[in-house]
Amino acid sequence: MIAVKVTYIVEEGYIDENLSRIAGFLADFKHLDQSRFQYDVLHVKGSPTFVHVSRYKDQEVQQEILGNTIFRKFQEERDKRLVGEPLIEYLDINLLRSL
Fold first, then answer.
1. DSSP string for residues in 29-43
2. What's the pLDDT tens digit per position in 41-91?
3. Which SUPFAM superfamilies match (predicted)?
């Protein structure tokens, strides 16, 4: 299993558009096999900060999700309006399984 957390900040004027684009790709993801991945998005209240946490069964699924047309368009548009670089963290979920 692969788990990734991405934290980023967008320009203040882009928050609503970012939320709309997120809703778009999440709706499209509902047509995919949900047993193979989980994708959650959080918005830090009152700020332009977003956190995406994703879990994939394997690299094949990860590439399928990251290659999704609507998701790619979201990324392209978001990247034009980023404040700084996104923080990408690979999470160790094996530790949680042993608890």
1. HTTS-GGGEEEEEEE
2. 999 999 999 999 999 999 999 999 999 999 999 999 999 999 999 999 999
3. Dimeric alpha+beta barrel (SSF54909)
State the Cα angle at 63 between 32 and 9, rounded to 5°. Answer: 95
- With residue 83 as reference, give the H or E element that holds it: none
**Is residue 25 domain-resident?**
yes
Domain limits at 29? 2-94
Q: Under a CB-based contact definition with an 8 Å cutoff, are residues 54 and 65 in contact?
A: yes
DSSP string, 46-67: TSSEEEEEEEESSHHHHHHHHT
The model carries a pTM of 0.91
Q: How many domains does the chain have?
A: 1
39 in Cβ contact with 65 (< 8 Å): yes
